[in-house]
Amino acid sequence: MPEYRLDTVGDVCPVPLLRVQKEARRLGPGDLLVVDIGQPRTVRNILDWAAKNGYATEVAPEAHGTWRLGLRLGGTGVAMDVGKAGR
Amino acid sequence: MPERTGSGPLARYAVAIALLPGAFAAIWAAAGSFQLAAVWVIGLSTGFAVQRSRFCFVGAFQDAYLFGLNRLASAVVALTALASVGFAVVQSVRGGVASADLMAALPPGNIFPVGLHTAVGGLLFGLGMALAGSCALTTLTRIGEGAAVGLFALGGLVLGGAAGRRLTAWWTAHVGAGAVVHLPTAVGWPLALVIQGTVLGAALYWLNRGRVGDSDLRIDESRGD
Fold first, then answer.
1. Domain containing residue B44
2. ipTM score here?
3. A57 at interface of B, judged by CB pairs closer than 8 A
């Protein structure tokens, strides 16, 4: 199960979700996409979009003002510790 | 990765609230104005609500148009409905007061002439917001969050606002004032409120059609603040 990475820190809205949307198309069932995010509103945005489109998500704060979000196609959970996914 | 250190969010809120009266008194004393201190508290509270709710005017349009996410757009419509009631109360009271002063006689709420310049200005403003990635409101909260790009947007806002203030008279004189549209003046307050309520209610219904559950509103910001 491949793991994809995306760093959106520094991107302005709505660029992060546009990039996530594009990247998420590559995901097969069970594949993981790990996204680094620098804006709380973007976290909310991606969570809303993921819920609407059938992705399981998990969020963990990474450092001051950045979050790491895991996105998996299908299933009920991301089943991973996004905080431990190394850079 | 740094370990979680320091106090939790609740403790920090408690500290902030405890500091508030002192800061209020300091501003009151330094500026010699109770009103200024009060406006500061209102501004602070508004900023807090905007930051915590992730509210954003430009985001509302972007989310709905690009991604079919209508949560923020619903919030903007609901806010407009709420503000309409507030404006109705204030304007219907103030509007009834006769005054020799033109500005005082106008209903408060910055009702300006509509024309081609409105569309051009709106387009420019929208372009600026899209480039900045935030509206005027969230530019301020993002500076508070530490986003340096917000400072550029703020510079643009200040320049644009100052230019607008200087150029409005020129526009009005040379391009034409256009019509001043104020629904309650045209049809009266009761009908205006019914029309406004119907349109906004329909918009809310349409935005929330087929809506399923939203994602959990809470995200752990213990280290993110």
1. 8-53
2. 0.73
3. yes
Rg (CA), chain A: 12
> Is there a single domain that holds both residue B108 and residue B218?
yes
Measured between beta carbons, which residues in chain A are less than 8 angstroms from residue B69? 45, 48-49, 52
Are B74 and B105 within one domain? yes
The contacts found for B196-199 with CB under 8 angstroms, 24 or more apart, are: B196/B81, B196/B84, B197/B81, B197/B84
Please calculate the CA angle B48-A21-B57 and round it to the nearest 5 degrees: 30
Q: What is the pLDDT of residues B168-224, one digit of tens each?
A: 778 777 776 677 777 887 888 889 889 999 999 999 999 888 665 555 555 554 443
Please judge whether B219 and A67 are an interchain contact, meaning their C-beta atoms are less than 8 angstroms apart: yes
* Measured distance CA(B95)–CA(B104) in Å, rounded: 9
Flag whether residue B5 sits within 8 Å of chain A, measured between CB atoms. no
Q: Which of A13, A62, A64 is closest, CB to CB, to B133?
A: A13
Q: Does domain A3-72 have CATH number 3.30.110.40?
A: yes
Number of CB pairs, chain A paired with chain B, less than 8 A apart: 91
pTM confidence score: 0.73
Where do the domains of chain A lie? 3-72
**pLDDT single digits (tens) B69-105:** 888 899 999 999 998 888 888 777 765 444 444 445 4
If you average pLDDT over residues B153-159, what whole number do you get? 89
